[in-house]
């Protein structure tokens, strides 16, 4: 017998053994990859569903904020109408009727209903003619240079909401002025009806809607992003400021009536899931945000747990597979020899 006749079957057995190893390891790798893909796809769908649910909740809360602002605006509109009536009575010489309205408005401001700080009338020359915040006998104060007077003097008849200011007559805290033009019997500009609201009171009302830490709510002006009320106590230091023009949330508010989005908050420095709305009939917008990290934390914890479990399962299955392959005996050369050659083989 030639020596090669003895070794060729043995070499073929080793090749078949290596092929078995390669096939088994390939099957293991494919199984692990498929399992990983299945879990990753499932968890991605779960995260998307959780994010969608959180955005829906944020949108519902934004609508609740809008309704609260609208109730306050309705109350202010009633005060503006009373101020218009007071002016007509005053110009008609009905001092008793004008005084009765003044007494009622003074009581409203004293009780701070709906966060009202002050109510007043600015004449067409820019002088504060009457105000609940003025002490009796106080000297008239000109506010002609203030934005909330100038916009109406220049022709605006709709509701105007000012940025936060320090009151000229009280000078004690922030005020938000809601104004509307007064008209004489001919429809000409006759002055401005002024109602000042407390932004801190409004901010606290927003904060009462928060269910936990990490939530945020805001009321701002659409014209320039001026911040009028902030629900989160840690963000109220930004009152009196404004969102920058490049803020994604501000751009979205200007672009559509209502919506929801996952954006970075310039105020909290976190990624928030926002619902936002523009306020009907007012130059305002509101938003309510939920902390994205907190909302998605359960899904991400599940992902980490699943990844750890899959890693352990993959490692154990690989060890078992290697043990099986290691103890699997190689095909003996003689078992694969043709019968005639096996009989003539020595031994």
Describe the structure.
By secondary structure, the chain is α+β, with helices and mostly antiparallel strands. Among the domains are: 51-66 and 201-295, 2-Layer Sandwich (Beta-Lactamase), CATH 3.30.450; 76-198, PAS domain (Beta-Lactamase, 2-Layer Sandwich), CATH 3.30.450.20. The protein is 50% helix and 20% strand. The protein has 7 helices and 12 strands. The protein has helices spanning 3-91, 95-111, 147-153, 199-207, 248-255, 292-327, 339-344, and strands at residues 116-123, 127-131, 141-142, 160-161, 165-166, 174-183, 189-197, 216-221, 227-230, 258-264, 271-278, 284-291. The strands form 2 sheets. Strands 1, 2, 3, 4, 5, 6 and 7 form a 7-stranded antiparallel sheet that branches. Strands 9-8-12-11-10 form a 5-stranded antiparallel sheet. Strand 8 and strand 9 form a beta hairpin. Helix 1 packs antiparallel against helix 2 and helix 1 runs antiparallel to helix 6 (292-327). The chain is rod-shaped, with a radius of gyration of 38 Å. The protein starts with a helix and ends with a helix. Residues 331-347 have low confidence and may be disordered.
